[in-house]
Amino acid sequence: MAFRNYFDEKMYKIQNTKEIQEIQLQKLRQNLSTYYGRSPMFKMILDSQELKPDKITIEQFRQAMPLMGQDTVRGGITESGPGEKGKIVTMLASVVGVDPNDYVLMCATSGTTGEPTPYFFTAEDLEIMPRGMSRCLWMATHGNEQEIHEMRCIQGFGLSMFGAGVPLVECLIRLGVGVIPVGAEGGSDKILKFAEKFAANTLWCTPSLAEYMVDTNLQRVRDIGFKYIFCGAEPGAGIPEVRKKIEEGFQAPLFDGMGLVGGLTLFSCHEKQYAGMHHLTDDMFLFELVHPETKEPVPFEDQAIGEMVMTPLQGVSIPPGRFSSGDVAQIFLSPCKCGAPGWRLKMTGRTDDMLKVKGVIVYPASIDGVITGFVPRVTGEFRIVLDEPPPRVEPPIKLKVEYGAGMKKEDLAKLEKEIEADMHQKLKVRPKIEWLPPNTLDRAAMKTKFIEKAYEQKKK
Ligand SMILES: [Zn+2]
What we know:
- Helices cover 37% and strands 24% of the residues.
- With 460 residues, it is an alpha/beta fold.
- The chain has 2 domains: 1-349, 3-Layer(aba) Sandwich (Rossmann fold), CATH 3.40.50.12780; 355-459, ANL, C-terminal domain (GMP Synthetase, Chain A, domain 3, 2-Layer Sandwich), CATH 3.30.300.30.
- α3 crosses α4, α11 runs parallel beside α12 and α12 (207-224) packs parallel to α13.
- The chain binds zinc ion (ZN).
């Protein structure tokens, strides 16, 4: 069966063990040696430090290799101007040292600056992804291959997305899983129609889209009877209150995931109380943590918090650099109660949306978690009002919060106290709340923007 061509059960079982560390070192040396031979950039970096790729230690590698934002190389190339047609392709190919004609799939992010950031895949890259993905399907089904084979998946992420779009479709097909590629572009009505017609039993989409379906089409969602909900691309599926809403709405277990490109696979498990995402690809990716501001190393210890830096240990289109995705996370090295292997990780925020309230680091996503916990007494919509450019916030942190439809004005003071106490207990900050009637704030179509930049209006 197709699944067994990619699933390595022995490797799955030794995740987060001493045994895997030796494999990591050998794979790093092997991958660096390959790049040393074909990429002038890697040869230059290693030669300048007098390092031999086949003798290097992980410590030496971390000191020699500069930290790169996921988009540094690609973004730099993209922003270097329109240039001649296809210049981006040849430039990226030369960085990783491949023939541009070896790219068989060419995707891009939408690009926050408007310019798409390219992500290209060779045939070999496409073969790596299902090796990682097979492990999360194994974990989600408790190792039931028949169940995996019977999965019929709605692909409800943006189809043009660089990871969760066509690459995800390719990956599932290789694993012998049925795929229905509707894409988020089709909208939730089309997704539900396809799911009904083709009897889908598994849904892949962003948590905000899953929440939207629960809000707008609860009965149809229930009637389809999804057995698995796989979410990613946004942090929502790790927020307890959002999880509860999606799982109760769909009456199916929700899995919070990240990765795919390069085979990276992190997925949450069946634990009722969210235990973070298990990292299932220690043999494919090397992880480290750095301080979000100083970029100094943070020891990789149980419960440590830091900016995640990853190094791919194989693959053609992503070189063995030290890449940060800009995510800040807490790691858990102790075994999970669920029994599945792998150290775990909980997202706490992004380096670019970090706020510092008198030295206490707070992320908008964490505030969202607290506010969502008070639904239906609040609508769940809120804004963080910033009088100064972030990250520094003069306490108390100001919030505009919509109260719920059934709330009486005289009860708001009591609710305010409860939210304050809860936020202080969970995040160590006390907010000052300004109440707004329901439906006052703009509903963003896709990702919610939590920040109101009052400091920009002040300047005008
Ligand atoms: Zn677990």
